[in-house]
Amino acid sequence: MRTFRYERASTTSGAVALLAEAPHGAFLGGGTNLVDLMKLDVARPDLLVDVRRLTSDRVEELSNGGVRIGAGVSNSQLAADPLIRRRYPMLSQALLSGASGQLRNLATAAGNLLQRTRCPYFQDVTTPCNKREPGTGCSAIEGHHRDLAILGTSPECVATHPSDLAVALVALDAVVRTEGPDGERVIPMTELHRLPGAEPQRDTVLRHGELITAIDLPPLAFAACSYFRKIRDRASYAFALVTVAAAIDVVDGVVRDVRIAFGGVAHKPWRAIKAEELLRGGPAGEDQFRRAAEAELADARPLAGNAFKVPLARNTMVRTLLDLLEGPR
Amino acid sequence: MEAEVTFRVDGTSHRLTVDVRTTLLDALRERLGNTSAKKGCDHGQCGACTVLLDGQRVNSCLALAVAHDGAEIVTAAGLASDGELHPLQSAFIRHDAFQCGYCTPGQIVSAVGMLREAEAGWPSAVTAGQPADGGSGGSDGPTVGILTDDEVRERMSGNLCRCAAYANIVPAIQEVARG
Fold first, then answer.
1. Contact B135 A227 (CB under 8 A)
2. Are A39 and A1 contacting, i.e. CB atoms less than 8 angstroms apart?
3. Among the three residues B32, B48, B78, which one is the final residue of a domain in this structure?
4. Per residue in A91-132, pLDDT tens?
């Protein structure tokens, strides 16, 4: 591991100021991904500003009926939180489907959103990778890409975003609150992560030195009927092939509202806007769910080794919505 | 860059100066001579390095020592009290829950942390279950009663055993979980 300076600040603005002066510095949260990437020489920060104990580690109810998640809440605490489990069960399920008990105890909520892709070439400094070293090329397109993206890819990058939590947050229309050198702002989760385009090195729209301080969940009554389903090669402790986060509100057989997001299919959590629009106001049933999934996935451009993800994503979405229709017994 | 840190490890206080690149695991093994936690993958994938950090199980290979200054750390070597093995240690011996033993300290510490988590009512992906089972939605009380074998396997999935002693690890943990 390369050398770096380690600093702590007593305030979030102090931490932001420290990083603003270090163009190659990084914030340190739980470190479960960053420290690993530093060992692999993929991440080479010359300054770590430790914010793990600086941002809030609490989950609080907001006056509008929503919930605020402090950036420093551990993945374990968030998954176990009674408010989250009752009102947004898919969010708890998403967290519990990822990593291991040990990792969830270290990892923070904000850090979960900012983890980097697990594309094998990104993590291997001996291979070309446009995300790690822009301009060197993408090894995955002609190489091992079974786990990688089918939607929104570019000739430069076919990586997927690895966070399960982010998928549930995108479905819930959550927002992240940030503090940066230019002040505070609020970013919708649907806009936090970006598609690779010609700049795959940029995972998110965050600017250098911009710190996530909290994640706000809006009130959404029917999210109490939500579910996160993860399809992966092992039953536990593996990254996703495909995930679906979904919530549905059905009255008298008609879809009053629905939220659907896919994970494991793109460079960002994929909100299924087309599918939602097709379903809203129409009858709820297997045929409708399948047509909506097919419409959403019509733009999929899979590679030779991951075409299986298209029917997998379709079937996972249909099954998840059908299970939600049945509801708790 | 170096930094001075203080830890309490298995009940004993230590003050040491570390390179800020030092992980908690390397600080324990290379600086404090406590080789209970093992270095397996060194990337947070195998769980051999599991310790209790302020009461919670973590991968010590991914925690920078400097970031956890002042922490209370318990390794498998610190679980015994007054010469008596911890119940999980005895259960692992009784059930022959290891072969080469390299993953065992991590397995045992992880099981200690895991049983505390279950006792606190923390759900797992298995508890959360399918939506038709009620999922984890609609309930905010402790939902973890008796741990099924599936629950133990899911909650212990962060600890790999290359000898595949899982068939005996699960009953060893269950014996203690069920008192």
1. yes
2. yes
3. B78
4. 999 999 999 999 999 999 999 999 999 999 999 999 999 999
